[in-house]
């Protein structure tokens, strides 16, 4: 029975991970859970999965949660909070695997800690590699741990590579659904609402990643993550729009052969593959019906309308601290959009402005990467103020 620590247990990936554990009680055991502020849900998760350690974001929530657990007769589950608690869960002594599905750059430090603790990492926190891949991947080698991708596209590439042998990968074909606004032009996006942007055509995901998918920022982040995971340059990665999300990604070898991983759009498959690797485990659910599917269509991404994607390629080529700026600017811009403080197109504008205003650090340390996030947030706050001033005049 594999013991697993789940970071981000109340989010989309975390709850689906626990569904897999629920369906396979003889294969997996939860030893630690970490969440944000949804203490009602994590309380239910503790009652069902009996972890010995849990963590939440705020101290006051930890105090309240501990009171609830004691009142229910649970005197064994330890409750922590903040970054220290998140790191403690990531390094839980009896956990064989740490599944990191927290959102944002907050996922970097627990990933580093888990690597140093010798854990197998199932990574659904793309920000870790986007902003600190130059630090994380050498550490993976140094500590000789496994880093397994959970994102559907990266899992697809990883699965295809299992039959690679000595063949050289010439190109990675990263598929994209195109999001809810596929085919629209820039003028049509000016009045997009939060509700419209949150309606993804194929995937059920958290709010931030759903917005990222609509702007194609998510695909840009995936390009950078794939580069670090599979040791590829930006020129070896191509984005292909495939609206039905049936082909999850492909690799092209230097002899021209192409391998693809296909399946219905269900995140539980890549999550479970990371949890059971190198084995496969049966899973209930819908199966791909080729007779019903009939055809699969492919399109080039509209890099002009969805400028965030072309900008991501530029940032990845430049490297250094620029990916950290791109990621941090997007995190804040999306939060502002969800709070209805900026318009939809301003998400990409703010990212590009922040990237252009930054002086690149060629090889940033972990401390510099984390400080860049704060500096970028400060820049955007100032920029928003200036932008509103111009609009008023």
Record keyword descriptors for this entry.
single chain, 393 residues, alpha/beta, Rna Polymerase Sigma Factor, Chain: A, 3 domains, seven-stranded parallel β-sheet, 48% helix
Question: Any overview of this molecule?
Answer:
The protein is globular and about 60 Å long. It contains 16 helices and 11 strands. It has helices at residues 12-23, 39-49, 59-71, 82-90, 108-116, 127-143, 152-161, 194-197, 207-215, 217-230, 268-276, 290-293, 307-318, 322-338, 346-357, 366-392; strands at 2-7, 28-34, 53-56, 78-81, 97-100, 120-123, 147-149, 169-176, 237-241, 247-253, 258-262. The chain has 393 residues and is α/β, with parallel strands linked by helices. The termini are far apart. It has a 7-stranded parallel sheet, with helices on both faces. The mean pLDDT is 94. Helix 6 (127-143) packs parallel to helix 10, helix 9 (207-215) packs across helix 14 and helix 14 runs antiparallel to helix 15. It has 3 domains: 2-149, Rossmann fold, CATH 3.40.50.720; 151-308, no CATH class; 319-393, RNA polymerase sigma factor, region 2, helix turn helix motif (Rna Polymerase Sigma Factor, Chain: A).
């Amino acid at each position: 029975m594999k013991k697993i620590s789940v970071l981000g247990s109340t989010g989309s990936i975390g709850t689906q991970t626990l569904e897999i554990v629920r369906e396979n009680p003889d294969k997996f055991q939860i030893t630690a859970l970490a969440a944000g502020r949804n203490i009602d849900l994590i309380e239910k998760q503790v009652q069902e999965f009996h972890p010995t350690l849990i963590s939440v974001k705020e101290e006051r929530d930890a105090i309240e949660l501990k009171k609830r657990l004691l009142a229910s007769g649970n005197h064994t589950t330890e409750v922590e909070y903040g970054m220290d608690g998140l790191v403690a869960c990531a390094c839980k002594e009896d956990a064989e695997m740490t599944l990191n599905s927290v959102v944002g750059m907050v996922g970097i430090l627990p990933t580093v800690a888990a690597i140093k603790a010798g854990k197998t990492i199932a990574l659904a926190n793309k920000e870790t590699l986007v902003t600190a891949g130059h630090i994380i991947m050498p550490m993976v080698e140094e500590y000789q741990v496994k880093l397994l991708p959970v994102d559907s596209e990266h899992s697809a590439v990883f699965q295809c590579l299992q039959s690679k042998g000595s063949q050289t990968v010439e190109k990675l074909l990263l598929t994209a659904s195109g999001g809810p606004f596929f085919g629209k032009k820039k003028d049509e996006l000016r009045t997009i609402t939060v509700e419209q942007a949150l309606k993804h055509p194929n995937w059920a995901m958290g709010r931030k990643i759903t917005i990222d998918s609509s702007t194609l920022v998510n695909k840009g982040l995936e390009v950078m993550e794939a580069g670090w995971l599979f040791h590829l340059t930006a020129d070896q990665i191509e984005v292909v729009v495939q609206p039905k999300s049936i082909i999850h990604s492909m690799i092209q070898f230097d002899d021209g052969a192409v391998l693809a991983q296909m399946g219905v759009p269900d995140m539980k498959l890549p999550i479970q593959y990371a949890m059971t690797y190198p084995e496969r485990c049966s899973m209930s659910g819908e199966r791909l019906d080729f007779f019903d599917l009939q055809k699969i269509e492919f399109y080039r991404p509209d890099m002009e309308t969805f400028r965030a994607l072309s900008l991501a390629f530029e940032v990845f080529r430049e490297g250094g601290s620029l990916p950290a700026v791109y990621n941090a600017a997007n995190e804040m811009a999306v939060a502002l959009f969800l709070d209805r403080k900026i318009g939809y197109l301003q998400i990409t504008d703010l990212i590009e402005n922040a990237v252009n205003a930054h002086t690149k650090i060629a090889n940033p340390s972990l401390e510099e990467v984390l400080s860049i996030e704060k500096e970028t947030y400060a820049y955007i706050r100032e920029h928003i103020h200036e932008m509103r001033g111009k609009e008023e005049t």
